[in-house]
Design a protein that fits this description.
Strand content of chain A: 25-35%
Order of helices and strands of chain B: HHHHHHHHHHHHH
Oligomer: heterodimer
Order of helices and strands of chain A: EHEEHEEHHHEHEHEEHEEEEEEEEEEE
Helix content of chain B: over 70%
Helix content of chain A: 10-25%
Largest sheet of chain B: none
Shape of chain A: globular
Radius of gyration of chain B: 20 Å
Number of helices of chain B: 13
Structural class of chain B: mainly alpha
Shape of chain B: globular
Number of strands of chain A: 20
Distance between the termini of chain A: 59 Å
Number of helices of chain A: 8
Radius of gyration of chain A: 27 Å
Largest sheet of chain A: 6 strands, mixed
Distance between the termini of chain B: 27 Å
């Protein structure tokens, strides 16, 4: 066995972009040839080796050519020039359940799908129970797959593909299928495959997954390899590189106020600022740094006992946090113009792009003077702690102790929540 | 040669795709596989009414079998003809219809055309078996000739496979192919001695004696050789004419060679074009 699992040598691939995709003879005759097209180079002279038994990530923006490269490895696309050598049995998780026949039962489709992926009937017989068990579809395996829910369909497809026991596994953005329990099973399976020395090549936008799963990475940009090497630093650089663009685009598009706003008036939040560790307004702050959200207000009249609210949403809509000043510091009254600061000593939110929503209410919550959705978009750059997942990094420290596990403590009666 | 090895390696996949086609073909229809018989029988009934009742066409006499029954003559030619027309129609759509598969998984793409074609072989054999029973009932002892029929079916399969390979891949680039083929198949049908005996054409040519070799042109159609061979084996009970048999063999091999070459040539960008 050679030391590489996949060798990519000077691979180039371009696509034809048809101005109008008219696959008819009439249009061909009228033009005296097939439809006119532009050549779009998706991959340009790409070369690298993926070592045997490694987990390898292909990252890059949309259109950078990573999926094209993966499809070339899977032999679905043929490179225009160059060569891809795959050493070992390969299985590709590009689309789950491709080739399922809706009228056939799950059982028949397992055999069909497995043979498409290169298993013999005997091998499927051996693994059949594993596959069905993995998908958790014992009860439904003899009903036609057209009656399956989309989740069941995908689970069965995944179970077949993962049970092929490939030496090289290609995965395209399908790590997140099924419910929590199924995902857990998938992750365990991936870990197992990695432990037994399977080479795994992953294309994913979910950088958290890539960070935990992959040792090596290639960062593609416009069809060429920009960086190649250990995954963690490349991913960090990639995030840093990607984010300013997103904010910049947003700025250009919208200039100032972005989101919807409502409220009865009388007082407004004029502007939201984010101050970085140096106290300078910035749209890019670093995780773990002290930051300040500064809410500038302008009142037409005196507002008694005002309450300021600050909400933070991830771009996919996840509500990261919603806090207000009621329990904290309520000025007796405000008037004219001024600002209210919210200071976080160590910003605990994970890298990404976020929107801040702000509000100004009265103490009873009955009157909302101003509520401004997505008033301010900002980026969080990777910082400390570097390795974590989820939405926030919980503040705290680890310490070690010896002895048996502590007995379960009863909740103290006075504890809140 | 690696492709041949690959194809041999995929015979299990071929088997599974074939069984998918077969099981899927008449799923959820009440008559199920009987449709495979109903179609040629109803066609035979229509043509018999038109030609025997309306046009008073006389059935050709089997030589040496002595059989004289227009519907049976018709069916011996109609079954191989439907086989051709079904396989070609099936092959033309076999790549476009499986776009999701071609786009997502690698396997030798020829398998799709082959499984579609082979699924019709199964129907053909069922139909031929029923025809054989009817022929036996009419006193035509076809049993000793069945091995020859199997050889003919094999040759015709090679022939349609070649045509299907070329058309399937061309249809990906030009969707006109499928519409064009339905017209071509109609013309081809009348240019083949299915609803009339070939003697009909021969005597017409003799009577008019046209300047250019019409008969040669007529016989250039490989389906003439195939259908004539079926007629002779099943209706007349004699070996196919050597000329027909050789021509059919050559046509089959040439068709497969060209078809496969075309397929290989255009297959590279299938996933992008689909």
């Amino acid at each position: 066995m050679s030391e590489f699992a996949v060798r990519v040598e000077n691979v180039s691939k371009s696509f034809r972009l048809y101005a109008e995709k008219n696959t008819s003879l009439k249009s061909a005759m009228l033009r005296g040839g097939r439809a006119k097209y532009q050549v779009f180079p998706a991959l340009d002279d790409v070369s690298f080796d993926i070592p045997q038994g490694s987990t390898f990530a292909l990252i890059g923006a949309n259109g950078s050519g990573k999926s094209t490269l993966l499809k070339c490895m899977a032999r679905i696309l043929r490179p225009d020039s160059g060569r891809i050598t795959v050493d070992g049995k390969m299985s590709a998780l590009l689309e789950l359940g491709a080739g399922f026949h809706p009228e056939l039962s799950g059982r028949e489709n397992v055999y069909l799908n497995a043979s498409i992926l290169g298993l013999s009937r005997k091998q499927v017989n051996e693994r059949f129970d594993d596959i069905v068990g993995f998908a958790g579809l014992e009860k439904f395996i003899d009903s036609p797959v057209k009656n399956y829910s989309s989740g069941m369909y995908v689970r069965l497809g995944f179970a077949v593909a993962i049970n092929v026991d490939p030496e090289v596994l290609l995965v395209d953005e399908v790590l997140a299928v099924g419910d929590e329990a199924f995902q857990q099973k998938c992750n365990e399976r991936f870990a197992y495959l990695r432990d037994i020395g399977t080479t795994i090549v992953v294309v994913s936008h979910s950088l958290g997954v890539v960070r935990t799963l992959c040792e090596q990475a290639a960062w593609l940009e416009n069809g060429v390899v920009r960086r190649l090497g250990p995954a963690a630093p490349i991913i960090d650089d990639y995030i840093e590189f990607m984010h300013p663009e997103r904010v910049a685009v947003q700025d250009e598009d919208t200039g100032e106020p972005t989101g919807s706003r409502w409220g009865e008036g009388g007082a407004r939040i004029e502007r939201v600022e984010l101050l970085d560790a140096n106290g300078k307004p910035s749209r890019r702050v670093r995780m773990g740094d002290p930051v300040t959200f500064r809410l500038h207000y302008a009142c037409d009249e005196e507002i008694k006992r005002p309450v300021f609210g600050l909400g933070i949403h991830r771009l996919d809509g996840v509500h990261v946090t919603g806090i207000n000043s009621r329990e904290n510091r309520v000025p007796d009254s405000i008037s004219g113009t001024g600002y209210m600061d919210f200071v976080s000593d160590a910003l605990p939110i994970l890298p990404g792009t976020y929107d801040a929503t702000v509000a100004l209410m009265d103490h009873s919550n009955l009157r909302v003077y101003d509520h401004w959705n997505h008033a301010h978009r900002f980026d969080i750059k990777p910082g400390v702690p570097r390795e974590c997942e989820g939405v926030i990094a919980m503040a705290g420290t680890w310490s070690v102790g010896a002895g048996p596990a502590a007995p379960k403590r009863r909740r103290s009666p006075g504890a809140k929540r | 040669m690696s492709t041949v090895k690959e194809l041999v390696g995929s015979r299990e996949l071929l088997g599974n795709l074939l069984s998918r086609e077969l099981r899927g073909k008449y799923k959820r229809s009440f008559l199920g596989w009987s449709w495979s018989l109903v179609n040629p029988l109803s066609l035979a009934a229509v043509y018999t009414v038109v030609f025997v009742v309306i046009f008073k066409a006389a059935a050709p006499a089997g030589d040496p079998s002595g059989l004289k029954a227009f519907p049976l003559f018709l069916l011996t030619g109609l079954l191989p003809w439907s086989y051709l027309s079904n396989t070609i129609t099936g092959s033309v759509g076999s790549l476009t219809g499986n776009a999701s598969l071609v786009n997502k998984v690698y396997f030798p793409r020829e398998i799709l055309v082959a499984s579609s074609t082979l699924s019709w072989v199964v129907s053909l054999f069922i139909e031929l078996a029923v025809l054989a029973v009817v022929l036996l009932a009419f006193g035509n002892n076809v049993l000793p000739w069945l091995p020859v029929v199997v050889v003919l079916v094999a040759l015709q399969t090679v022939f349609v496979l070649g045509v299907g390979l070329a058309l399937s891949v061309l249809n990906v680039y030009f969707r006109d192919v499928q519409h064009f083929m339905s017209i071509l198949l109609q013309i081809w049908f009348y240019a083949t001695p299915v609803i009339y005996p070939i003697s009909f054409v021969e005597s017409y040519v003799e009577r008019h004696d046209p300047a250019f070799p019409v008969m040669l042109l007529y016989r250039a159609n490989p389906m003439v050789a195939f259908v004539e061979s079926y007629h002779r084996v099943l209706y007349d009970l004699r070996f196919p004419a050597l000329g027909d048999f050789l021509y059919a063999t050559v046509a089959a091999l040439v068709s497969l060679t060209i078809g496969w070459w075309v397929f290989r040539r255009f297959e590279g960008r299938l996933a992008e074009e689909l």
